[in-house]
Amino acid sequence: MSHFRSIRAAKVAACLLSFAAAAGLGGCSTARYVPLETAPPAPLPNAVSAAAILAPTADARTELERLPRSSAPPIALRRAFLELELGHARAAIDATSQVLYSASRPAANEEAFARYLRGLAYVKGGTPELAAYDLDRARQLALDPGLVGRIGEVAATRPAAASGSAVAALGVHSRAQWHAVAANPRRLDPMDRATRITVHHSAMYFRNDSPAAAAVQIQQIQHEHMAGRGYGDIGYHYLIDPAGRVWQGRPLRWQGAHASGANNIRNIGVCVLGNFVRGADGQQPSAAQVGALRHLIVALMQDHDIPAGEIFRHSDFKATACPGPLLEPVIDRIARELRGGVPEYRVATPAP
Ligand SMILES: [Zn+2]
């Protein structure tokens, strides 16, 4: 923050100098006052596009309150999206009706968005059987690539393989096995589904193959996240120790805290224990860790229908050394291989 203040101060100073030099000619655009703490209100959507209608929102409730009571398609569709973000399926369906059953027939693109949002509302509202027609129709009409991708995701929202999942088949170590402290649900946001995976490192040198040592490491991370950073639980959903064991971190029904703000939405956080940087404090990920990471990614893709294009490194979201220059190429290679087709490794789902 002080960094930005000093930049602003410098800009204003430079501006005053140039203002004096120009003897009052011209304006001083950099001196425009911008509040430092509060984000500007989201602009009203004025187009029916994925960028306008389906953009992530920082605060759905506030944005919804600011929307005019208009039935113009961009406004009504954005309202439907925001109602869905708040879990109000019924209100979202009502908003889409303003577009689908308006006096004038909706344009194909408007209908595509309305059908998609209504289908999603049916799925979220617990009546997925009602969604099939809307989603099929949306698929026929959709041209916006951002919308086409989203429709594919909803179609993938089949009843999740809750227990008989591919990840479960990896023999994930439970929270009890690392003596997790109980989470604080008041500081957690629910996660309705997962659409992407982000890989991290713990940034602490660690090369002990014993499960007891891994348990202590994970406890420390949870303590740092809860007591140090005020998180409701450990920030990652899964952790992988040097022996290749996979440990359950934050349960997937809760959104993670690992990729900064809105980047955490529907994002599964995987932490590989170790410090994968160059130099004396760094280390290479073990072969067991690389193998386990690949298996976990494949299993998560399988359980949640996550495409290979949705596998990220923490550094894809912000300037950070995480997950380390020695792990990044491993993640890139895994993602590239999985984009190339059906993985050769399929996790066997245990018999019920
Ligand atoms: Zn990270």
Mind explaining what this structure looks like?
The structure is a single chain. The chain has 11 helices and 5 strands, in the order ααααααααβαβββαβα. It is mainly alpha-helical and 352 residues long. The protein has 2 domains: 106 residues, Serine Threonine Protein Phosphatase 5, Tetratricopeptide repeat; 172 residues, Lysozyme-like. It has a 5-stranded mixed β-sheet with strand order 3-2-4-1-5, with helices on one face. The longest helix has 20 residues. The radius of gyration is 24 Å and the shape is elongated. The N and C termini lie far apart (54 Å). The N terminus and C terminus are likely disordered. The structure holds zinc ion (ZN).
Computed Rg: 24 Å
- Give the overall silhouette: elongated
CATH class of the largest domain: Alpha Beta
Second rung of CATH, namely the architecture of the largest domain: 3-Layer(aba) Sandwich
Instruction: Summarize the helix and strand pattern as letters.
Output: HHHHHHHHEHEEEHEH
β-strand amount: 5-15%
Indicate the structural class.
mainly alpha
The CATH superfamily label of the largest domain reads Peptidoglycan recognition protein-like
The helicity comes to 40-55%
Strand element count: 5
Domain module count: 2
**Uncertain stretches of 5 or more adjacent residues:** 1-32, 156-162, 342-352
Q: With helices defined by DSSP (H or I, 4 residues minimum), what is the helix count?
A: 11
The major pleated sheet works out as: 5 strands, mixed
The first-to-last residue Cα distance is 54 Å
Bound molecules: zinc ion
Q: Strands of the largest sheet, in order across it?
A: 3-2-4-1-5
